[in-house]
Amino acid sequence: MLTALEERLLWQEVIERDMAATGFSLLQPTAAASEAMRCRDVLLRHEVPVDDFSVRRLFGWDSDCQRFLTWLEHFDTALIQSHLATQADCLRACADVGSSESNPGETVDLFHCYDLQPLVIAALDRQVQARSISPTEQPETALPPLTTFPTRQAELAEVARWAADRHRAGKGTTVIVLADMASDRALLEYALRAEFDCLDARYNELPVNFSLGMPLSATPMYRSLLCALRLMLTSVDRSDLLFLFTSPFLPLACRSEESPQLLVIQQLFALGKPNLECTDIRHYLAKHDPTSPLISIIDRQREELRGRVQLGLGEWHSLFRRMLEHWGWPARDGLDSLEFQQFDRLDNVFDDFESLASVRPEVALSEALNLLESVLNDTVFQPKTEATAIQVLGPREATGLTFDAFWFCGARSTAVPGVPRLLGFIPAALQNQYHFPTADYASMLQKSEVTLQGFRAASIEFYASWYQFEDGVEQYPSPVFPSCSTPQDIPDYWLLRTSAQRAEIPIDILEDDYGIPIDAEDGTSVGGSAILREQAECPFKAWVRRRIAVSAPEPEQLGLSPIERGNLLHAVLYEVWGRIINRDQLLALSMDGLENLVRGVLDQIFGEHIHQDVRRRVGAACLELEALCTYRVVLDWLLLERSRNGDFQVVSREDSRRLDLGGLTFSLRVDRIDRLASGEMLMIDYKSGGVGSASYWFGERPSDPQLPAYALSQDRVQGIAWARLKAGDLKFIALGGELGLNAEKPLSKQLAALGLPPETTWSQVLEGWRDALTNLAAEFGEGYAAVDPQPRACDFCDLQGVCRIRQPPLSEMPS
Ligand code: SF4
Q1: Which domain of life is it from (predicted)?
Q2: Parent domain of 248
């Protein structure tokens, strides 16, 4: 008999073959396979005569249903050819075998079995004498009114408190039944752990049994197994890579914040690729962490996979085992009891994996890994725990059991009885005619009523509850219950708990805006001018970024990142101003000459300056487009420079220099310095992205102190300017007198426009900058790290999770 996974894979194969043969296409063949599997099972169990003309005619009215009939025929043929059967086929066989015997032997009592499908009843009738026993309805077992809670969390918290109180008082068996086990289990478990204080150290001491386990693939141990094996593919995604480096079940866990693995991760993420190739991982490991065991693992993988494309599942099994041995999985010393139970399932997992050979004889590596993941998804891990007084069950598991006290949670109308759902590949008329359970609201309601009556009759104490709002959307109580109470006046559980704990624990608040001061050796650079900008924007930002070096990993990039585009533009301009060094040369060039010069520079830069990784990631078409945009911007910019009305000579490009401020040394790289007709200097910074106004250079904490810092690093400076190189908006934003730029106002008017005294001289401007920047440098050196952002400093800052600027102060948190 096929397992559910084998059956689904066979359906998938049938559907994929049909798609290949007919050109019919589906967005999600896997989902279609699951739905088709469900439909065939229901048709068989309800003994629908699919071969009847009248039934087939109904299927013919809908193209999806019609297609399903074709698949159904192919699937049945595949079963016969392979001598396989599904669970429903086996029931059919049981119903057929022995049909001639009039007196089956054993007697079987069916307790609470009110929704048996016709095929099951037929099979039972042929094999045994079945008697149905239902709970009798008595006046004292009438269902009580529902208790109403405002939210799911409030309801589950109250239930957890009730169960914990009963347990502490030794009041006998307690059961909690969750109408929606999938959604509520994790929240209830958390609430129970909080009640029993089993969140951390005493994690395994929770005195609760959950009837439903979790898929093995969701356990950290098996997730690490999948991540490790997925590295055999040519690339891994970012989350898998992080898991490889952090899982305690693999030998790569980062050992300290100084770990070279952090540098490797940082550099891999900086590539901007959504999937990271093994060759890149190996390259950066060899560079920064040459003793990493991952290098030999990657080499071993290459060797193992050489020349192997399609293999049988048995061969993939052996290879996976060898790789896991090489990884040393699970690398953790001393597995605890839960982990040991999980590890113990490995042989069964691989047995199930190999058994899929009946439907997938030979597959490629990626499919073998998908199959292994499917097996792990389908293998539910239910830890063996001590017998305890508290049970958490789903409605099906609780049926027929008896308890001292019983609480039914989540009795909303959408869960009890639920919402009717038509199967996608079976005509609706047929589903109604045969009373398919999921299509018939009346039978769903009746089934829920009988189930709950059974629970009520089997418990001494019985409670039931629901919650009124889910994500702000109003819910409705289950119609199975006679009425419901007014909402419980309970504030949100999590805040309640926090405030209760807060009341018990005195909190000392220590205001300390200073980190450790810098002990810089003379002349040792602490970094670039970006430190001053960040210190001005928000001291905490500068401290976190520059002193403890925390930043978010680079995000994935589609195309070139803004930094990569800026770097290319800078490189092109560097080269252009190496070939044209003054205004006379610029004016001497004809338009054709200018165009040829820019084209030549672009060919050189785009041919030589782009790393292979970036080329592979963005593709040739994207680079061509970028080259075209850069060509237009640079050409237009040179035309603008040609219209400058003063003489100039480019005397420096990308010049490195040092600046001493407030006892610290900063390293600067100035994009360009022009000597003007007066012999004085103009400091220029290229800006391809957003740029502010000249007011950003002033104030006690200038928002953009980069150009002022450049000005302080050079003698005989007459002005500073941003060269704004944005397509359609090219201009100089400058400050200074007689700079030879177009439409230039006298310095006094420029200063007045900025709200500064017009009589201020240029040397006073420079002095002002020296004072402001010295203060910023001194603050940084002293470790001043207050969370004190300037307006808009937080807009694009990725440190909000660290500084908690959006979180209200503790004293203002709701009680
Ligand atoms: S988010 Fe705002 S307050 Fe927080 S570090 Fe960044 S700039 Fe400072």
Answers
A1: Bacteria
A2: 215-381
Judgement on whether residues 531 and 665 belong to the same structural domain of the protein: yes
Q: From residue 740, give the alpha-carbon distance in Å to each of 84, 398, 430, 513.
A: 88, 87, 86, 46
Say whether both 345 and 278 belong to one domain.
Answer: yes
For a mutational test of ligand 1's pocket, the pick from 547, 701, 797, 806, i.e. the residue with the most ligand atoms closer than 8 A to its C-beta, is 797
Evaluate whether residue 264 is within a structural domain.
yes
pLDDT at position 143 over 80? yes
Q: Are residues 235 and 359 in the same domain?
A: yes
Side chain identity at residue 442, one-letter code? A
Q: Please name the residue whose Cα sits nearest to atom 2 of ligand 1.
A: 794
Query: What pLDDT digit, counting tens, does each position of 378-435 carry?
Result: 898 877 666 667 899 998 888 878 889 999 999 999 999 998 889 999 999 999 898 8
Q: Flag whether 807 is in a domain.
A: no
In a domain, 734, yes or no: yes
Q: What is the pLDDT of residues 25-75, one digit of tens each?
A: 777 888 999 999 999 999 999 999 999 999 999 999 899 999 999 999 999
Q: Find the residues whose C-beta lies inside 6 A of ligand 1.
A: 537-538, 540-541, 787, 789, 793-794, 797, 799-800, 803, 805
Q: How far is the CA of 216 from the centre of ligand 1 (A)?
A: 41
Q: How many angstroms does the Cα of residue 797 sit away from the middle of ligand 1?
A: 6
In a domain, 508, yes or no: no
Whether residues 240 and 356 share a domain: the answer is yes
CATH number of the domain to which 421 belongs: 3.40.50.300
Same domain, 589 and 699: no
Which of 546, 787, 796 should be mutated for ligand 1, with most atoms under 8 A from CB?
Answer: 787
User: Which of the pair, 298 or 136, is modelled with greater confidence?
Assistant: 298
Asked whether residue 41 falls in the same domain as residue 121, the answer is yes
Report the b/e string of 524-554 with b at 16+ CB within 10 A: eebbbbebbbbbbbbbbbbbbbbbeeeeeeb
Give the residue, out of 538, 543, 545, with the most ligand 1 atoms within 8 A of its beta carbon, to mutate for a pocket test.
538
Quote the ligand 1 centre to 806 CA distance (angstroms): 9
What is the percentage of the chain residues whose pLDDT exceeds 90? 53
Cα separations in angstroms, 616 against 231, 283, 563, 612, 613: 20, 16, 17, 6, 5
> 237 pairs with which residues across the strands?
275
CA distance 327 to 295: 11
State whether 448 and 307 are in the same domain.
Answer: no
The Å distance, Cα 550 to ligand 1 centre, comes to 13
Q: Are 373 and 418 in the same domain?
A: no
Tell how far the Cα of 801 is from the centroid of ligand 1, in angstroms: 9
**What is the tally of structural domains in the chain?**
5
Q: How far apart are the CA of 789 and the centre of ligand 1, in A? A: 6
Q: Do 773 and 661 contact (CB within 8 A), yes or no?
A: yes
Of 134, 165, 180, the residue that ends a domain is 134
The protein residue with its alpha carbon nearest to ligand 1, atom 7, reads 794
Of 323, 352, 381, the residue that ends a domain is: 381
Q: How far, in Å, from the CA of 242 to the mean position of ligand 1?
A: 26
Cβ atoms of 93 and 85 within 8 Å: the answer is yes
CA of 794, closest atom in ligand 1: 2
Cβ atoms within 10 Å, residue 272: 20
